[in-house]
From TrEMBL:
Biased composition (Gly residues): 64-75
Organism: Parafrankia soli
Location of the region described as Disordered in the Swiss-Prot/TrEMBL record: 31-88, 186-226
InterPro entries: DUF2599
UniProt biased composition (Polar residues): 193-203
Protein name: DUF2599 domain-containing protein
Composition-biased stretches (Low complexity): 40-63
């Protein structure tokens, strides 16, 4: 049964089957009691219920997002002012972009650094990346933020899994998290490809791909990957 759309808020989002052995090793690296394998777990896990109300992301226009700025260069040599949005490079992030859809859906794409892909502390790296996301786009509705952070942790955990069809990584060049996806949960990362099989994708093209700090994007968003 198709899942309800998750996002109709202020803003607007795989690869093929991963090699089972390689993916299994990546998930084993996850910490905490939820790091069991998918086997038998989904049968006992209730499908998350999509929210009926529209989740919101702080209204974002170039230069309007709040949050602390990151540390690094934005590619122009300019430094962000305190409290201004910053979507440029930092320890684990090369760039962050935002895509919007007419119905209010949105996708945040994070281009990770090599240090992010090879991080020993995956959960710690994911948390730092999420702080960079907040510094770029501002605050996200808590329910949507929970799903996006879980998607992000999945991408970070699978960051070194090889891709197919000529792609270096299964995640693609970016970690893409979408507002309309229910929270997959660690035990469903593999079977849902980081949540990419959950929710109903927009049928139209995004209205815009931008950096909320007003700087032209340096990367082109490619959409969903595992």
């Amino acid at each position: 049964m198709a899942e309800q759309r998750r996002s109709r808020g202020a803003l607007g989002g795989g690869v093929g089957v991963l090699v089972a052995v390689a993916v299994g090793l990546a998930v084993v690296r996850g910490s905490g009691p939820d790091s069991e394998s998918d086997a038998g777990a989904e049968a006992g896990t209730a499908t998350p219920t999509a929210t009926a109300t529209a989740p919101s992301l702080a209204a974002v226009a170039p230069g309007s997002a709040g949050g602390e700025s990151g540390t690094g260069s934005d590619g122009t040599g300019a430094r962000p002012t305190p409290g201004a949005p910053y979507c440029g490079s930092s320890r684990y992030v090369e760039e962050i972009t935002l895509q919007r859809w007419a119905g209010g859906d949105f996708r945040i794409s994070v281009w990770p650094t090599e240090e992010a892909r090879h991080a020993d502390d995956r959960d710690g790296a994911s948390a730092e990346i999420w702080r960079a996301v907040q510094g770029c786009v501002g605050e996200v509705d808590p329910v949507v933020a929970e799903s996006m952070q879980d998607q992000l942790r999945c991408h970070e955990s699978l960051a070194l899994i090889p891709g197919r069809g000529g792609e270096e990584y299964a995640t693609g060049g970016s970690f893409d998290v979408e507002s309309w996806r229910p929270t997959p949960g660690r035990r469903r990362w593999i079977s849902t490809r980081c949540g990419n099989t959950l929710g109903t994708d927009p049928t139209s093209a995004p209205l815009a791909t931008e950096r909320p700090d007003g700087i032209p994007p340096q990367h082109r968003a490619s959409g969903e990957h595992a």
